[in-house]
Q: What sequence folds into this?
C-alpha cells in the first residue's frame, strides 16, 4: 500500500523509471488476468507488454488517484477486450464461426495454461460470454469492486452484478456437472 | 467469498523471461530516447540489520491485519470494517510504533535479539522515516521523496551520515517489504470475532480478533497466535494492533500503535541535524 502510494507520487511527478518496479511487482498478476480473459498466454503477454509501453506516454499528463493494482487491471482488461474483439472479427472473416479469442479447436492445449489441476476451471471459463468472464475475473482475481467494473465496462452496477451472478452460477453448474456426470 | 471466487483466486501464471526482457528493454529505450531527467525518487533502504528486517515484517503484519477488516464483514457493529482500507487510502501521512517483547520460560521480559522498539513515519509528501530503538540508543533513517539519499542519525553518538542510493535501488521499498494484498489473501479463509467496544488512551474503540494471523516464514513463525485490532469508532482508523504467540517456547508479544494524518507532525521527516553532530565517513 505504502509502496504503491510512493510509486504513484513519483510517476505523477514525471518519474517514469518507476515503471520497472511496477512491472516487476504486478507482472504475474496481470499476465494471469490477461491469460484468463483471453485463454491464450501469448496474446496475454502481448497485452501486458503493450499496457506498460503505453503507460510510459502518460506520465506527467494524468493523475492516478485510486488503487494502482486496480488501475493496471483495468488497463489490461480494456486492451484484452480490444484484442478479443479483433480476434473475433478476424476469425469470423476466416472461419465464419468462433466464440472468442481462443477458438475451441485448441481447447485441450489452452485448458492446460493454468496447469492440469485447473484445466476444468479454464474450460469452464471458456463457456462464459466474454463480458461475464471479465466481470468475474476483475472481481474475483483482481479484487475490483462492482462500481469500478461498471465504469470499465460502461454499464450499470446492476448489470455488472447480474453478469457476476450469472458467471458464478454458470461456472458452478459446469464444474458440478463435470464432477458428477 | 464463494467457492468459485476461491478457485479463480488460485489461477496463477508467471510472466515469462522473454516478456520481462521486452518490457524492461522497451521502458529503457523510451527513457533513453527522451533523456528523461529524474530527480524525484525514494530509495530502497539497505536493511541488513536484523532489527530492520523485523520492523519491515511488522509493517506487513499491520497491513495484513487491515486485510482482516476488509474481507470478513459484514457485521452488526458500528464500525464499517470493509471501508477502513479505502479510508486509509485517503490519508497520505501516518505513523506507527511497534514494540516487540519476548518472555522467556523463566518469566523474564527482555527485548532480546528478537525484540525491540521501532517507529515508522510514512508520507506521500514527506517520505519515510524509521527509528530503531534498543540498548538505550535510537538510530533514525530518513529517505525523503525529493532526494536519492538515505540519511542516518544517531543522537546518542552525535553522528550522522548521508549516502546516495544507486539508481538500481531507487523506487524500491526494502526487499523485506511485501505486498499487503498477499496477506489479505491469506486472511480470506480466517474468520474473526468481534470484541465489542473498549477505551484506549481515552479513545473509544471497537475490536476484532483473529487466530493465527498469517506470517511469512522468513518473518518468523508464531504458534498459537492471536491478533487483535482496535479501531477508533469515530474515525474508523486503527488505534492499536496486538499479536501474541509462542516461538521457541517463549511468548512473543507485538504491539503497534498508530497516529493518522494531521496527528503526525511533518517536521519529523526532516533530519534537522544539529551543527555539533559529526558526519560519519563511509
A:
Amino acid at each position: 500500500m505504502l509502496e504503491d502510494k510512493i510509486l504513484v507520487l513519483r510517476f505523477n511527478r514525471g518519474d517514469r523509471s518507476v515503471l520497472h518496479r511496477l512491472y516487476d511487482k504486478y507482472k504475474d498478476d496481470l499476465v494471469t488476468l490477461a491469460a484468463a480473459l483471453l485463454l491464450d498466454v501469448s496474446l496475454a503477454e502481448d497485452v501486458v507488454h503493450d499496457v506498460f509501453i503505453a503507460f510510459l506516454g502518460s506520465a506527467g499528463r494524468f493523475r492516478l488517484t485510486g488503487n494502482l493494482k486496480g488501475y493496471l487491471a483495468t488497463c489490461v482488461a480494456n486492451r484484452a477486450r480490444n484484442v478479443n474483439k479483433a480476434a473475433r472479427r478476424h476469425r469470423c472473416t476466416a472461419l465464419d464461426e468462433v466464440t472468442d479469442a481462443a477458438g475451441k479447436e485448441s481447447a485441450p492445449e489452452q485448458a492446460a495454461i493454468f496447469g492440469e489441476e485447473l484445466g476444468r476451471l479454464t474450460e469452464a471459463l471458456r463457456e462464459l460470454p466474454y463480458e461475464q468472464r471479465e466481470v468475474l475475473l476483475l472481481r474475483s482475481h483482481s479484487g475490483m469492486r462492482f462500481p469500478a467494473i461498471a465504469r470499465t465496462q460502461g454499464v450499470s452496477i446492476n448489470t455488472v452484478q447480474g453478469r457476476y451472478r450469472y458467471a458464478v452460477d454458470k461456472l458452478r453448474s459446469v464444474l458440478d456437472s463435470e464432477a458428477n456426470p | 467469498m464463494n467457492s468459485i471466487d476461491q478457485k479463480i483466486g488460485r489461477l496463477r501464471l508467471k510472466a515469462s523471461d522473454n516478456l520481462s526482457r521486452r518490457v524492461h528493454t522497451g521502458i529503457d529505450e523510451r527513457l533513453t530516447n527522451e533523456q528523461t531527467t529524474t530527480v524525484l525518487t525514494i530509495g530502497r533502504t539497505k536493511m541488513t540489520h536484523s532489527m530492520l528486517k523485523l520492523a519491515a515484517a511488522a509493517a506487513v503484519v499491520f497491513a495484513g491485519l487491515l486485510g482482516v477488516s476488509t474481507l470478513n464483514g459484514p457485521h452488526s457493529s458500528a464500525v464499517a470494517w470493509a471501508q477502513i482500507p479505502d479510508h486509509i487510502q485517503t490519508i497520505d501521512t501516518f505513523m506507527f510504533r511497534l514494540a516487540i517483547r519476548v518472555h522467556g520460560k523463566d518469566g523474564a521480559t527482555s527485548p532480546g535479539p528478537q525484540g525491540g522498539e521501532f517507529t515508522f513515519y510514512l508520507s506521500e509528501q514527506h517520505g519515510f522515516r524509521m527509528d530503531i530503538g534498543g540498548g538505550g540508543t535510537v538510530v533514525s533513517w530518513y529517505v525523503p521523496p525529493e532526494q536519492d539519499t538515505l540519511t542516518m542519525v544517531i543522537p546518542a553518538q552525535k553522528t550522522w551520515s548521508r549516502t546516495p542510493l544507486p539508481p538500481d535501488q531507487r523506487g524500491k521499498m526494502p526487499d523485506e517489504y511485501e505486498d499487503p494484498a498477499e496477506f489479505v489473501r491469506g486472511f480470506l479463509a480466517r474468520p474473526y470475532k468481534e470484541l465489542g467496544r473498549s477505551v484506549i488512551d481515552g479513545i473509544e474503540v471497537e475490536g476484532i480478533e483473529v487466530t493465527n494471523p498469517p506470517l511469512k516464514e522468513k518473518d518468523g513463525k508464531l504458534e498459537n497466535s492471536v491478533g487483535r485490532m482496535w479501531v477508533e469508532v469515530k474515525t474508523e482508523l486503527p488505534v492499536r494492533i496486538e499479536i501474541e504467540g509462542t516461538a521457541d517456547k517463549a511468548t512473543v508479544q507485538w504491539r503497534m500503535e498508530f497516529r493518522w494524518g494531521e496527528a503526525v507532525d511533518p517536521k519529523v521527516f526532516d533530519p534537522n541535524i544539529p551543527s555539533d553532530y559529526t558526519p560519519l565517513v563511509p
Observations:
- Chain B touches chain A through 51 residues (CB under 8 Å).
